[in-house]
Design a protein that fits this description.
The structure holds two protein chains of two kinds. Chain A is built from five helices and five strands; from the N terminus they run ββαβββαααα. Chain A is of the alpha+beta class. Chain A has a five-stranded mixed beta sheet with strand order 2-1-5-3-4, sandwiched between helices. Chain A is globular, with a radius of gyration of 16 Å. In chain B, α9 links the parallel β16 and β17. Classes of the chains: A alpha+beta, B alpha+beta.
Chain lengths: 159, 786
Amino acid sequence: MAFHQITLTINGETEIIEVPSNMTLLQMLREKVVLTGTKNGCAAGECGACTVMLNGEPVNSCLVLAVECDGAQITTVEGLAQNNHLSPIQEAIVAHGGVQCGFCTPGVLISAQALLNRNPQPTDHEIRDALVGNLCRCTGYLRIIEAVKEAAKQHAVTV
Amino acid sequence: MLVKEPPTEKIPDLIGASVPRLDAYEKVTGAAVFTDDLQFGPGLLHARIKRSPHPHALIKSIDVSKARALPGVKAVVTGEDFPGFIGLYLKDRYIFARDRVRYVGEAIAGVAAISEAVAEKAVDLIEIEYELLEPVLDPEFGASPEAPLLHPDLGSYEVVPFIFPKPGTNISNHFKIRKGDADSAWSTCAAIVEHKYRIPHVQHVPIEPHVAIAKVDEQGKVTLWSSSQSPFAQRNLIAKSLGISQSDMRVIAPYVGGGFGCKAGVSMEALAVAIALKAKGRPVKLLLTREEEFYTAFVRQGLVIKLKIGCDAEGKLLAMENTMYWDGGASTEYGVNITRAGGYSSSGPYEIPHVKTDSMCVYTNHPVGGAMRGFGMPELHAGLEQCIDELAHEIKLDPVEFRRINCLKTGSTVVTGSKMHPTGLPECIDRVAEAIHWGHKAPPSSPTKRRGKGIALMWKAPAMPPNPGSSAVVELNEDGTVTLAVGGQEIGQGTFTVMAQMAAAALGVPMDWMRIAGPVDTQYSPYEWQTVASRLTWSMGNAVVNAARDAREQVLNVVAEAWNERPEDLDIVNGEVVSYKSEETISLKDIVIYGMPKPNASGWIGGPIVGRGNFMPTYVTGLDAETGQGERAVVHYTTGAQAVELEVDLETGKIEILRGAAAFDLGKAINPEMAKAQVEGGFVQGISTALFESMQFKDGIMQNPSFVDYRIATSADAPPRIDSILVEVPQDDGPFGARGVGEHPMVPTIPAIANAIYDAIGVRVGSPPFTAEKVYLALVDAGVVS
């Protein structure tokens, strides 16, 4: 197995990491950087629990090889709160009760944040569409959808 | 703060307040620790499992020599190493298969190696010779005398006294109801409906797969870290199976990333422990793949149910015959009790004078059935509530009115012969009918669609042994904050928050003073039977309130002695002890660790305050094995009603749920918003099983073990709106009157949707799931479309 040294930015911090060729971005985050907020639910790109932002776009990190991320900007759930202040989407999902077991939550938050970044005022349909790859078995989604609407409202107020 | 009024029995303000979840902050920041997040360093070994490719076969030989010789392999184990049985209600399974395999995916051997890749390679090198046997793939056939016997030793298995196996058959439990005289009641019925339904196997699909890490020290003491709803049951069952002391078996259980029953009892955790026993000193981790998650842990068992229900000309239910063949799978150690629950709940939430029920748990060569949200009730109600609906139409009564007439009311005679405790079921029906605008039909959104509404009722009791216990410890800290220790598990339902609310309310401190001692650890946490059966709010809640009151009493006794007052004149309000008599006050932080000085420096009173409480129901009686009749079958029933409005697309058969309404009588909502979140989540999980979900088997092999082929509801499938209505008829022995509601919203969803489909298109769709294909073909068959 060949190893590669890659340099990338994770949640604003520059990291230099040695990774084997077949290591996924998900494995690198959880095992090499020990950022365990990003979850492994299926390792097949089907559940969305491992969603992170790769250069601003939400991706299933279980389907991305770590070596592909040389020079990339990665945002994980650990990067959403700034100086211990929850981001608007984090605040909203807590306030609306959109968290139960919490296992899908990191991926949901990243997908929602990526949506708000590219479309600050999404419709109900656009929100559901953006979250369709994030399976949640607990909440029934309604409170998550409400939370994204609330965060969008907050965004509108601050802008 | 000074309170002039003496304390009253009024429910504290914190009870019924929708405070935010205690675990929300760590769960939205990625800080919350789940089992797979624990770090074990480079010494960690990775386990993989050699599994049966056959549904039924004798094991002729197992050769592990090549696997053992592979560099990097540290342990290889087989059933020979672990001869003990394991199981919750019926000890009918081995940790690893021994002489025969009974389902595809059954564990035969386990490997621990320095990496997953090496472990997988070693598993491939294990050679097994089989002699194939005829499989049993249908429970009705399995119950017949023609079926091959899957457990010839059934008669010798250890079993709890309320389960009745039939040795010499594949029936591992037969629960009977013989109430009244159903056979002769049919002649008095004005209308009779008779149907057979097949409810498919479904999977719980927690987003977090099962994971367990086990480590055994040189003395043979075991530590198990697992994603578990049942740390104490795992401690007990695994220790018993291995022949070690429960105190030498420690289970540590971090947050659970979804359970829904599949992480109750013991499934794959025993595999990790067994392998670790042969790799002493090193932690061994077993993480199921998503495919393994689908069929090698627990599944919701399938059900074949034959129902016959009749009523008189006024619409009063007279008789029911209910025959259930549960597809228990290869082992029914947990499943037997689902079939018992199906039996004692077989009437649904109705008063029916003549009932004949046979609920049979049948061994098959399918995956092992276990607990799943609803514990048999969604499967039972799926058919039953369609029959009730049809009977209402037969007798020309409105389905809501028909249910009003027949539903259980306070004092009704339930199917096991006892009287119904105070229940808000009639109110649930009225409120749901009102919320869904029953009787008003809006036009469909397009000429190619049809719109309909449907309703269904439910009841469910906590299904468990008669005497499962709870306990709690309340410990006060230097600053007056309170650490609450419980052994029940936070699986997403919010129990830690609700327990903290009850403790704070019973003790008299602000909510933000509450801390939970976690993770649950059998070495330190107080005992809890299992996090199942929607029993924690009620049972563990009672233990928590008792512990908080114990701590409160200790505090008040100390202060009373120091102040030379009576404890009855004192209270704890917002973290301060107050006297209604002398109007003195003192903050908890000044007394809960170091006590209080006696007058004139003559010594000290008190010491660290630690309150303890427990709870165990003591009043559940046995039921007669032949009639199912008895004084008190269960602790209580939570009842409820649900309704949906939907549209059927005539061109595709696709169902769109437009809105849902649900009302449940939970006695008292400790945290209303969190209770509503449970209702919504269960409702959508129910929609998912109604419209999409079915484990498809061919020759015992699951054909669709991935999220692509086994579809669950996504954000696109959630209805625009669900109205959750909380009805509060207090439970006499519930904390502040509360009873559970976690599982119940899953129960009536399938039949409510089926009944709404009938209302829309005039076709009874029968057995779920109501996929677009199935609905479209039903439309064609009925001549609605050509």
